[in-house]
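Q: What would this chain look like folded?
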Amino acid sequence: MTNDEFDRLTHGMHARSVEACRLILVDGLSINAAARQTDSSPGNVSRMLRKIPRELCPCCGGPVMH
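A: My prediction, written as structure tokens:
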């Protein structure tokens, strides 16, 4: 996933755990490493990961919720 795709998928979400999710999904860090780096708890990061959609609609470019 690219930074641009991540930004479109998380538009309007503002939390330390969102930045941790960026480190996981874009940079490939583990949940624990990303949580330490952003001073978040691994549990909060795991819960946020479940809230972030993983696909963009090919027609409109918006997030696809499953």
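The longest strand covers residues 55-56.
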